[in-house]
Design goal:
Oligomer: single chain
Structural class: mainly beta
Largest sheet: 6 strands, mixed, barrel
Number of domains: 2
Helix content: under 10%
Bound molecules: 2-acetamido-2-deoxy-beta-D-glucopyranose
CATH architecture of the largest domain: Beta Barrel
Radius of gyration: 22 Å
CATH superfamily of the largest domain: Acid Proteases
Shape: globular
Distance between the termini: 47 Å
Number of helices: 3
CATH topology of the largest domain: Cathepsin D, subunit A, domain 1
């Protein structure tokens, strides 16, 4: 440690990203100019030897739930000596960042003390830095990489990239302690769906994402997946060792400008029947708690639900504001089991599945919640209203009790029903 070195930083920052998105207005290049003196308090710690562990996977337990907490999170141990941080796993964005005592200009409340940065800055010409900026981006100060991420809910983080040590446990009882790039975020604005955490774990397909970085160091295959339990918790994994690929339904990844994990053009199936809502651009986004359909499809979906509820003992609960649409029964509901029988499954069906059609089945417990007032509320929301334009999002609620896998090498997204309650032990597959 020792006397902090003062680095003058030019904040000429461009672009980026999305948690639940960056669809629409946020897509434009955003530029911001600002001066800030960044006091670094760490020393360039001696780098730990990265020991490549061939064919290992990394499994991390998840905490949280869709309701009432509203998000899942993972604990990562970062730094030397390592300190714990709670991060929001986000397949909708690339950059991992921590609220950072650089010092912090604007930080939000966090469960742990803010991260203390070291001096191991990622230089501006590093390809990782370039991947976070527009192609036209010019380095104002070559020795550092400034970043800004803007999320679809209006939240943002601004900071500088540096390298630090991440401490993981591999599935084959090996410890994996790579030096990876992360953002020291010293200026955060909370968005509408703000989660009071220490930072974000970027799991997207870009070079800066944790899974791409682990892969480029030869530590795991470029595969990330999660298993969110409907009873809360679950696990997140990097690498392909925790599942049996032959038991997964795979569909090719489709590419869009924002580089989201998309299975492309889906069709809405309701109660096993086609609805006529087709060509839906569908994105899988673990950074979003709820699911979203574009306005027209949302309207159609609600009509189908309401038609189905005709004659059933459920009435719209206009006094429950938990979510836009809730229903109550004669008595308050305790669990989803009390209401399941009144609702049908729906599904998104993707025509390009490698074996016939790939159905992503969504049972009532994966699109409804029971509110604290005992009504049942719809966890599928109007995406147009949320600023997602035509994008349809499969959020955490609809990915519960499934293993969802993003294979960036095979360029495929896969899923399978799974018991997500316990992380697999060394070399144990789960299904
Ligand atoms: C890794 O394993 C060790 C020993 O089993 C445990 O104490 C530690 O908490 C684990 N670390 C993480 C990040 O899970
Ligand atoms: C969805 O949101 C859009 C934009 O706010 C609105 O025009 C539309 O009426 C909404 N659709 C439904 C079914 O509520």
């Amino acid at each position: 440690m020792g006397g902090g070195k003062i680095i003058g930083m030019v904040m000429f920052v461009a672009v980026v990203v999305s948690a639940a998105a960056g669809y629409g207005d946020n897509q434009q290049l955003q530029q911001q100019q600002k001066w800030w003196k960044w006091m670094s308090t760490g020393s360039a710690a001696s780098s730990s030897v990265v020991k490549p562990v061939v064919s290992s996977s990394i499994v991390l337990p998840l905490y949280g739930n869709v309701y009432p907490i509203g998000y899942y999170y993972v604990q990562l141990n970062i730094g030397q000596p390592s300190k714990p941080y709670f991060l929001d796993p986000d397949t909708g964005s690339d950059l991992t960042w921590l609220q950072c005592d650089a010092p912090c200009v604007r930080c939000t409340r966090a469960p742990h003390p803010f991260y203390k940065p070291n001096n191991d800055l990622v230089p501006c010409k590093d390809p990782l830095c370039a991947s976070l900026h527009h192609v036209d981006y010019k380095c104002e100060s070559p020795e550092q990489c400034d970043y800004q991420v803007d999320y679809a809910d209006g939240g943002s983080s601004l900071g500088v990239l540096l390298n630090d040590v991440f401490h993981f446990n591999g599935t084959s009882d090996a410890r994996i302690i790579p030096r990876l790039a992360l953002g020291c975020g010293y200026d955060q604005l909370p968005g509408q769906s703000h989660h009071p955490l220490d930072g974000v774990l970027g799991l997207g397909k870009g070079k800066a994402s944790i899974v791409s970085q682990l892969h480029s160091k030869g530590l795991v295959r470029n595969v990330v997946g999660h298993c969110l339990s409907g009873r809360g918790g679950g696990f997140l994994f990097f690498g392909d060792e925790v599942y049996d690929s032959s038991r997964i339904v795979w569909t090719p990844m489709v590419h869009d400008r924002m580089k989201h994990y998309s299975a492309g053009s889906g069709e809405l199936i309701f109660g096993g029947k086609a609805t006529g809502f087709k060509n839906l651009f569908v994105v899988f986004d673990s950074g979003s708690s709820f699911s979203y359909l574009n306005s027209q499809t949302y309207q159609g979906f609600i009509s189908l639900l309401k038609k189905e509820l005709n004659g059933k003992p459920l009435k719209e609960a206009n006094d429950d504001y938990t979510l836009p649409l809730c229903w109550k029964g004669r008595r308050p509901f305790k669990t989803i089991n009390d209401v399941k029988k009144y609702f049908k499954n729906f599904a998104l069906s993707f025509p390009h599945g490698w074996k016939s059609k790939a159905h992503f089945e969504i049972p009532p417990e994966s699109y409804l919640i029971i509110s604290s007032k005992g009504s049942v509320c719809l966890g599928v929301l109007n995406g147009t209203e949320a600023g997602l334009q035509n994008v349809n999002l499969i959020g955490d609620i609809s990915m519960q009790d499934k293993m969802v896998i993003y294979d960036n090498e095979k360029q495929a997204i896969g899923w399978s029903p799974a018991n997500c309650d316990r992380p697999p032990k060394s070399n144990n597959m789960i299904m």
